[in-house]
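S.,

As promised, the N-(5'-phosphopyridoxyl)-D-alanine run. Input:
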Amino acid sequence: MARIAYVDGRFLPISARAVAIEDRGLQFAHGVYEVIKAVGGRLLDLDRHLDRLDRSLAAIACPPPMARPALVLLLEELLRRNRLADATVYLQVSRGVAPRNHAWPEGLRPSFVATVRPARFPSPSEQREGVRVVTFPDERWARCDIKSIALLPNVLAKQKAVAAGCREAWLVDRDGLVTEGASSNAWIVDREGVLVTRPLGPAILGGVTRDVLLELARGAGIPVAERPFTVAEAVAAREAFLTSTTSLVLPVTRIDGAPVANGRPGTITRKLAALYAARCGLASATEE
Ligand code: PDD
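Predicted complex:
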C-alpha cells in the first residue's frame, strides 16, 4: 500500500511533489520537527513530544500549525489511513512560504507536513549484543536544544559512522566532553556504578527518552548524575548506551573500536532497556 502523507491540509501519496519551492524550510532550514513512536496505535509520550515541539517552535518564532487537539486527531487519522499501529510518526513545521528573503513578512502561515512509516526498532541481536559508536568533533551550532531540521553536521557524522561500520556517531565538544549522538542521547554507567548523562542545556537535544529513562532509573533506585563525561571515561566505564525514540535503549559495546568494559552490554543497561520496553508495551530482547 502506498504511504499517505499529510501536507498542509491534504492527504497525499508520499511520492507527491507537494512542498513549495519557496518554503522557508527548503530555502533556509527554517523549521523544526518531532519524531514520535506509536505502539499498538498509541502515540507514546505524546504530550512530552508536543511540549518540545512548542518549545522548538517558540525558539524559531513560529506559531503552531494548529491547536493541539486537532493535531492529535490528525496524527491518529494518518496512522489509520496508513493502516499502521506500530509506527514512527514524523512531523515537520516550517516558517511558511514567502519570496526568498532572510527576513520574513508578518502573518506568514507555517507549513506542516506529517508522515508515518512502519516502526523499525533495533533488531533483537543489536539489543542483545549492543552496537558500536565512533566519535567525531561536534561541529553543530550553539542551540542544539532546538529540534531544528538543520541537521547537516548530524547527517554527515552519521554517514561517516555508518561507513565505519558503526550504529551511531558520538559528538565531542572542544573540551573533549561527549555531547550526544548524531540522533540520540549518550549515557554511561561510571566506575562507581552511577548512571551518567550530560545535563540539559544548549549543547544537547533534551530527549524525551532521556527524560523518561531518568525517571525510570530514579524509580528503580539507580544512582544518577547529570554531568558531562569524556570519551576516555566512557571507554573506561562499566557500561555505555544510547537512547532515542526509535533506538529505544541500545547498549554501546565499542567506542572508536575499544571495548567498553568486557565488550558486553551491562547489567544496568539491560535493566533500563527492559523497564523502558515494558513501559512502551514492547517485548524486550535484552532480558535473560
Ligand atoms: N532523534 N539527540 C538528537 C540530536 C536527536 O536527534 C534525538 C532524536 C535525540 C533523542 O531524542 P528522543 O529521545 O526525544 O527521540 C537526541 C530522532 C529520533 C530523529 O532525528 O530521528
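The pocket of N-(5'-phosphopyridoxyl)-D-alanine is lined by residues 35, 154, 180, 183-185, 205, 207-210, 243-246 (CB under 6 Å). Residues 209 and 264 are 22 Å apart (CA to CA).

- D.
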